[in-house]
């Protein structure tokens, strides 16, 4: 199996809890420190237009913290002039372009790169010009993978929500969703794209996705923050890290189990 799979921890929902009451606690930067100490290879944060969780100040502090610790900050952002300006100001290691609607509870699907190329292309170019590594959050679709390569993105992050939901609900479509992820990852790698994946992953669903050899990074957030309420953030991340490592070491067995699900 290929090199160690990276884990990016999304800390958005630490800020969600803070904002429910106001004030400064719990502090997303403290969560980032704990995550990195527990085995996170990087930190992910989504600055939404409505600022429902991560704030501008959070991004400033996280950018400084990750630079000091020598870890990457993955800045999730909508394709807007405002977010582009913020990314260009802070210059995170990576920017992941995601679809965003005010009324959604969470990101509900992948970015439609094929239809939105005229809007996405200039943002990709502007970010790359200052050395930001550009990722596009997309569905596991050959059309979207090809479109991501065509606009010059360096990375695709495959949306794993449909697969995760199908596994948890014991629906037979799970095998088809996993196969789509496998095929999209292989195509992306063949086109020279680095492949990441994320959304909805938990202890039950992470293994078969982690076993896909072309995927080099998983970004996981909501589940880990929720699990931290019961076990603590450090143990939650360490268990996820162990499951990822096991999947990488025992890929054929784990993939077979995932297909059976």
Note down, in words, how this protein is organized:
The chain has twelve helices and eight strands. With 261 residues, it is an alpha/beta fold. The protein is globular, with a radius of gyration of 17 Å. The model has no long low-confidence stretch (mean pLDDT 93).
Topology (SSEs and partners):
Blueprint: E1 6-10, H1 12-21, H2 28-38, E2 42-46, H3 56-69, E3 73-77, H4 81-90, E4 94-97, H5 117-129, E5 133-138, H6 142-150, E6 155-159, H7 161-168, H8 174-190, E7 194-198, H9 206-210, E8 215-220, H10 222-231, H11 233-249, H12 251-260
Helix pairs in contact: 2-3, 2-11, 6-8, 7-8, 10-11, 11-12
What do we call the CATH homologous superfamily? Aldolase class I
Number of helices: 12
Please tell me the overall pLDDT: 93
With strands numbered from the N-terminus, the spatial order across the biggest sheet is 1-2-3-4-5-6-7-8
Low-confidence stretches: none
Q: In the residues, how many domains can be counted?
A: 1
Instruction: Using the coordinates shown, work out and report the CATH topology.
Output: TIM Barrel
State which percent range the strand residues make up. 15-25%
CATH class term:
Alpha Beta
Q: Count the strands? A: 8
Descriptors:
eight-stranded parallel beta barrel, 261 residues, TIM Barrel, globular
Please summarize what this structure is.
The chain has 261 residues and is of the alpha/beta class.
